[in-house]
C-alpha cells in the first residue's frame, strides 16, 4: 500500500489529504501537525476575538477523530517532523508529548508548513505580552487577556490580520492604537484608494501611528521609533510572516528555495525532488502580472494547490492541469468599509518601471434611484500596449465583492479592459445598474484607449497648474460649496455648453464629482478647439488622494518633531 506523509494541516495539507483519499481508497495517508488543531478556520480567528463568531467550537472545522472516521486518515497532532531524509524517502517525527521519535518511510511527501511570524520587537523583561493572531491557541491567549481586564491594545502592522484585529478589538470596547511602517494601511492599496480607509479608522477612534514602528515593548506599552510612547496592556504583532522553510532547506532534504525564499515548485507543485510536493504559504507562486516568482499567502490558493498535489500523486501530471499564475485577489472588511484588490497597484507598477494606464470611477452598487445605493471607488490599471488588465482596487460597501470577482475573472481569462464595457452582467435595481459598475469602468477604458478623452491623474494636477493650466469645476454651485479644489474656476456644465462664461487661454483641466460630467465637458471643449484634459475620477479621487498624502505628511512632521 503506498504511503503519503503530509506535513502540516489546515488549508493546504487537509485539502491534499481529503482529495487524495477521494481519489484512492487504498492509500495510507498520514498527516503530521505540530499544533493541537489540524483543521481550523484561521481566517475566522479575529472575528471570534470581536465576538461576531460567538462559539469557539465553530472555528474547529474537523478533528483527528472525525477525519479518521470519514476519510480513514492517520492524523497526528502535537507531532513534529524534525528531519526529512530525502535519500531514504523518510521523515523523522517527534511526539511533542512523549519526546519519542519515529521514522516514517514515504512514497510521496507533501509539505504544507505554512509561514512563521517575523521576529518580535525587542522587549523588556517585564514587558506587556506580545501576541500573534494565527492559531486557536493565539486567540485563546488574546481573549484571556481581554477577559482579565485589558482596556488598551497596540496592533503592529496594517495588513489583513492587523486591520481585522483593529476592527474586532474596537468592537469589544478596547482602545486601539495601530502602528504601521507604511504611509497608509493595507499596502496593496494606492494612496488615493487608502484615503477612505484612513477616514474609516478615524471615525472609529483608532489611534493611528503611520510611518512609524515599535522600537521596544515595555512594562506599560510600547516605545516607537519616532520617540512616541503608547500605553497598552497587550500588543498584537501582525507585522507579517516569512515562509517556514527550515525543513525544506536542511541539507538532508536538499530542496531548492526560490529567489523570494519560498520553496520552489513546478506548475504541478513538485519540488526539486519529484517525490516531494509542497503547497501553501511556504511555496512560491508565479505572479500573473510579472510572470516571476512571488509569495502570495491566500487560503484559496493553498486549497487549490493542495488538491493539485493530491491529483498529481494519484493520477500523474498528464491528467492534471498545471497551476495558474496567481492574481492575488483579496477582500477585507474594516468596520463598515469593504476593500478589495487584484493584481498590481500603481505604486508597484511605477517601482517596476512598467508602462500603465490609470482609470478611476465612482459608481453606486445598484441603481441610484433604488433605496440604499452606496457609492464605491474603483481603480483599474491597464497595459497601454495591449489593453490588458494589470490590476484593480475597489473601496466601498455593498457590491464590492461581486465586482472584484468579475475583474479577477476577466484578468485571469484575458478579457481586455475595453471589453469590460460589453460584459453581460445580472441586473435588477436592488442589485446593480443597467450599466453595471464593471461596464462603466470599461466605458472609461475604451474612451481613453481610443483617444476620445485625455485624462490627468490627481497627483499630476499641481504640476499641470504650475505649468499654466486652468482648472474648471463643472459641478453645481451646491457641490462646489461643499468642497472644491483651491483655485478652480466654477462653471457648471450647463453654463459651459451655453457659452455664458468666457474661458481663459491655455490648457484646461475640467472636473466634476466623479468624472462623468467632466468627460462630457472635455468632449464639448475639445470640439471647440481647446486643449483640455479630464481629471480622472473627479473631485472624489482628488480628495481621497489628498487625505492620504496629508495624513502621511502630518505623521512625518510629527515624527520628526518628536525625534528632534
How would you sum up this structure, described in words?
The chain has 564 residues and is an alpha/beta fold. It has 16 helices and 32 strands. The strands form nine sheets. The protein has a five-stranded parallel beta sheet. A hairpin with a 6-residue loop joins strand 21 and strand 22. Helix 1 (10-23) packs parallel to helix 8 and helix 6 packs across helix 16 (538-563). The longest helix is centred in the C-terminal third of the chain and has 26 residues, at 538-563. The protein is globular and about 90 Å long.
Characteristics:
564 residues, alpha/beta, five-stranded parallel sheet, 24% strand, globular
Report strand order across the widest sheet.
5-2-1-9-20
The largest pleated sheet is described as: 5 strands, parallel
Strand fraction equals: 15-25%
Note the gap between the termini. 70 Å
Kindly report the average pLDDT value: 93
Task: Assign the structural class, choosing from mainly alpha, mainly beta, alpha/beta, alpha+beta, or little secondary structure.
Answer: alpha/beta
The general outline is: globular
CA-based gyration radius: 27 Å
Portion in helices:
25-40%
Instruction: Supply the number of helical segments.
Output: 16
The count of DSSP E runs of length 2 or more, i.e. the number of strands, is 32
Return residue spans where pLDDT drops below 50 for at least 5 consecutive residues.
none
Amino acid at each position: 500500500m503506498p504511503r503519503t506523509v503530509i506535513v502540516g494541516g489546515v488549508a493546504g495539507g487537509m485539502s491534499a489529504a481529503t482529495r487524495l483519499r477521494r481519489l484512492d481508497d487504498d492509500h495510507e495517508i498520514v498527516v503530521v501537525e505540530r499544533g493541537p488543531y489540524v483543521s481550523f478556520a484561521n481566517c475566522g480567528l479575529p472575528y471570534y476575538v470581536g465576538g461576531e463568531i460567538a462559539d469557539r467550537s465553530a472555528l474547529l472545522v474537523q478533528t483527528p477523530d472525525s477525519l479518521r472516521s470519514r476519510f480513514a486518515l492517520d492524523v497526528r497532532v502535537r507531532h513534529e517532523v524534525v528531519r526529512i531524509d530525502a535519500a531514504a524517502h523518510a521523515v523523522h517525527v517527534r511526539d511533542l508529548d512523549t519526546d519519542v521519535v519515529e521514522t516514517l518511510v514515504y512514497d510521496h511527501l507533501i509539505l504544507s508548513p505554512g509561514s512563521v511570524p517575523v521576529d518580535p520587537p525587542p522587549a523588556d523583561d517585564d514587558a506587556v505580552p506580545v501576541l500573534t493572531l494565527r492559531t486557536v491557541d493565539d486567540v485563546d491567549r488574546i481573549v484571556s487577556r481581554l477577559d482579565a481586564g485589558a482596556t488598551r491594545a497596540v496592533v503592529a502592522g496594517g495588513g489583513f490580520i492587523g486591520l481585522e484585529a483593529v476592527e474586532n478589538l474596537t468592537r469589544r470596547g478596547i482602545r486601539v492604537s495601530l502602528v504601521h511602517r507604511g504611509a497608509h494601511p493595507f499596502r496593496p492599496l494606492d494612496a488615493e484608494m487608502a484615503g477612505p480607509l484612513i477616514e474609516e479608522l478615524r471615525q472609529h477612534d483608532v489611534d493611528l501611528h503611520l510611518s512609524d514602528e515599535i522600537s521596544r515593548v515595555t512594562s506599560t506599552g510600547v516605545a516607537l521609533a519616532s520617540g512616541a510612547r503608547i500605553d497598552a496592556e497587550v500588543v498584537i504583532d501582525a507585522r507579517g510572516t516569512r515562509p517556514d522553510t527550515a525543513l525544506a532547506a536542511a541539507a538532508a532534504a536538499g530542496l531548492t528555495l526560490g529567489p523570494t525564499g519560498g520553496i520552489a515548485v513546478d506548475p504541478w507543485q513538485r519540488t526539486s525532488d519529484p517525490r516531494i510536493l509542497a503547497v501553501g504559504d511556504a511555496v512560491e507562486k508565479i505572479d500573473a502580472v510579472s510572470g516571476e516568482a512571488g509569495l502570495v499567502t491566500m487560503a484559496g490558493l493553498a486549497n487549490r494547490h493542495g488538491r493539485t498535489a493530491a491529483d498529481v500523486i494519484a493520477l500523474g501530471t498528464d491528467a492534471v492541469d498545471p497551476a495558474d499564475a496567481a492574481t492575488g485577489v483579496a477582500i477585507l472588511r474594516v468596520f463598515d468599509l469593504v476593500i478589495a484588490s487584484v493584481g498590481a497597484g500603481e505604486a508597484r507598477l511605477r517601482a517596476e518601471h512598467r508602462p500603465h494606464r490609470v482609470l478611476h470611477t465612482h459608481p453606486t452598487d445598484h441603481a441610484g434611484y433604488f433605496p440604499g445605493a452606496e457609492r464605491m471607488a474603483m481603480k483599474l490599471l491597464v497595459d497601454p500596449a495591449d489593453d490588458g488588465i494589470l490590476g484593480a482596487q475597489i473601496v466601498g460597501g455593498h457590491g464590492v465583492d461581486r465586482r472584484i470577482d468579475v475583474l479577477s475573472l476577466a484578468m485571469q481569462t484575458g478579457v481586455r479592459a475595453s471589453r469590460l464595457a460589453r460584459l453581460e452582467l445580472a441586473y435588477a435595481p436592488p442589485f446593480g445598474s443597467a450599466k453595471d459598475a464593471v461596464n462603466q469602468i470599461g466605458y472609461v477604458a475604451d474612451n481613453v484607449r481610443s483617444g476620445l478623452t485625455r485624462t490627468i491623474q490627481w497627483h499630476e494636477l499641481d504640476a499641470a497648474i504650475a505649468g499654466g493650466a486652468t482648472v474648471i469645476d463643472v459641478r453645481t454651485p451646491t457641490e462646489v460649496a461643499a468642497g472644491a479644489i483651491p483655485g478652480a474656476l466654477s462653471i457648471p456644465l450647463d453654463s459651459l455648453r451655453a457659452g455664458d462664461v468666457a474661458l481663459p487661454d491655455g490648457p484646461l483641466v475640467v472636473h466634476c464629482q466623479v468624472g462623468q460630467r467632466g468627460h462630457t465637458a472635455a468632449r464639448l471643449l475639445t470640439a471647440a478647439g481647446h486643449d483640455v484634459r479630464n481629471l480622472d475620477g473627479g473631485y472624489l479621487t482628488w480628495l481621497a488622494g489628498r487625505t492620504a498624502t496629508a495624513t502621511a505628511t502630518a505623521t512625518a512632521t510629527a515624527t520628526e518633531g518628536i525625534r528632534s
